[in-house]
Write a sequence for this structure.
């Protein structure tokens, strides 16, 4: 039986043995087989993958070129194994045994795998030219889907993510990298929890060590890192709007956008460098406009409660972001103007319009009362900072939005 036939119909033990022993040709054959039929994956294939993703050879690259005659084979084998790992992930839901093994293996060697992924994008990929035929954003997105799918499984070993500099560096790369057409890696879909890169960054930020490592990696990822972070954040907001236009369920899209608002808030709080860049780029105006655009599609009165709750949460996060800017250097007023320019008054008006009428005959108002109290707090907090002439001028420019807000405010009495 020819080797070509064996690969087409399955992966032979001989091929596995040769690949395990370092044969790049055999690894290439396995890669083709798994890519064309992810179901041909097996425990033996996964074992070979993790064997060649051991980060030990990377230490030698510090003193000797990765592209040397001795080191290049390690890089080539690792690159093949990364592609195999990405393809294997497609079939994990069909094979619980393989899924458990890959989850355990990835959790145990996550930092090393991420080191190899970073090495691939930094050193190997740029040498391949047009051979790949696929954008860098598409490749990054594939690894984001793999990581998120496994992370969602709730493996106890995933706590290593938040202490891994290589993982944080990979997330920063996913967040900041543009393809040849100037687009960021996004592909917002409902699969894998939607907007996988945003979700991964958000989960990383939930742990303080992960948050610190991520922002450290962001500031080192690009010569003009703060500006690029701002551009990426704005682009991802527009990506949320696009996902709604292509039919993703509105509450899911609102959740994607709320995650983005929280990431933006954490960036403002992290360092004055990011705070200035986000302010200069008018990020708050753009994100507020995105929220308002989606808010128009939330029904009034009998609208989806989950969507309404998310709108209230986003209104709170937007205001909290403004209040995080320093008062003494006037940046809070600049960003308050951006909030107004983005349509925040309109957003408050939409939220008041969704409140039920204040009818004494209605006794079941527990949830509504909490929502009303939150809205009163938002409006009063917002109003407290609008007495500056510059901000008043912006409000007067938004008179039609103010009229809508005033019409709904009688429900708050």
């Amino acid at each position: 039986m020819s080797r070509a036939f064996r690969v087409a119909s399955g992966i032979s033990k001989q091929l596995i043995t040769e690949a395990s022993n370092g044969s790049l040709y055999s690894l290439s054959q396995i890669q083709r087989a798994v890519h064309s039929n992810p179901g041909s994956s097996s425990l033996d294939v996964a074992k070979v993958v993790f064997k060649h993703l051991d980060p030990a050879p990377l230490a030698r690259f510090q003193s000797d070129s990765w592209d040397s005659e001795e080191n290049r084979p390690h890089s080539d084998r690792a690159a093949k194994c990364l592609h195999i790992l990405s393809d294997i992930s497609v079939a994990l839901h069909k094979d619980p045994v393989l899924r458990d093994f890959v989850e355990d293996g990835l959790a145990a060697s996550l930092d090393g795998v991420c080191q190899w992924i970073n090495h691939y994008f930094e050193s190997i990929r740029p040498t391949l030219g047009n051979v790949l035929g696929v954008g860098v954003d598409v490749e990054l997105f594939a690894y984001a889907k793999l990581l998120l799918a496994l992370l969602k499984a709730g493996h106890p070993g995933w706590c290593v993510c938040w202490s891994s500099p290589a993982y944080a560096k990979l997330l920063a790369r996913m967040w900041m990298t543009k393809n040849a057409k100037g687009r960021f890696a996004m592909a917002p879909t409902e699969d894998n929890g939607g907007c996988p890169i945003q979700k991964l960054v958000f989960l990383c930020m939930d742990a303080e060590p992960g948050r610190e490592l991520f922002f450290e990696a962001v500031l080192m990822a690009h010569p003009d890192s703060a500006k690029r972070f701002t551009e990426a954040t704005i682009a991802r907001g527009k990506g949320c709007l696009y996902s709604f236009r292509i039919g993703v369920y509105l509450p899911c899209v609102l959740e994607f956008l709320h995650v983005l608002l929280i990431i933006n808030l954490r960036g403002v709080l992290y360092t004055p460098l990011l705070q200035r860049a986000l302010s200069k780029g008018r990020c708050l105006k753009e994100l507020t406009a995105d929220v308002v655009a989606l808010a128009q599609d939330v029904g009034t009165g009998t609208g989806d409660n989950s969507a309404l709750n998310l709108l209230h949460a986003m209104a709170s996060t937007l205001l909290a972001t403004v209040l995080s800017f320093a008062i003494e250097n006037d940046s809070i007023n600049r960003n308050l103007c951006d909030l107004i320019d983005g349509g925040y008054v309109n957003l408050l008006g939409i939220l008041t319009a969704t409140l039920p009428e204040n009818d004494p005959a209605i006794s079941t108002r527990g949830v509504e009362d909490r929502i009303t109290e939150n809205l009163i707090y938002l409006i009063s907090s917002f109003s407290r900072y609008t007495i500056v002439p510059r901000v008043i001028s912006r409000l007067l420019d938004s008179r039609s939005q103010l009229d809508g807000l005033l019409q709904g405010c009688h429900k708050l009495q």
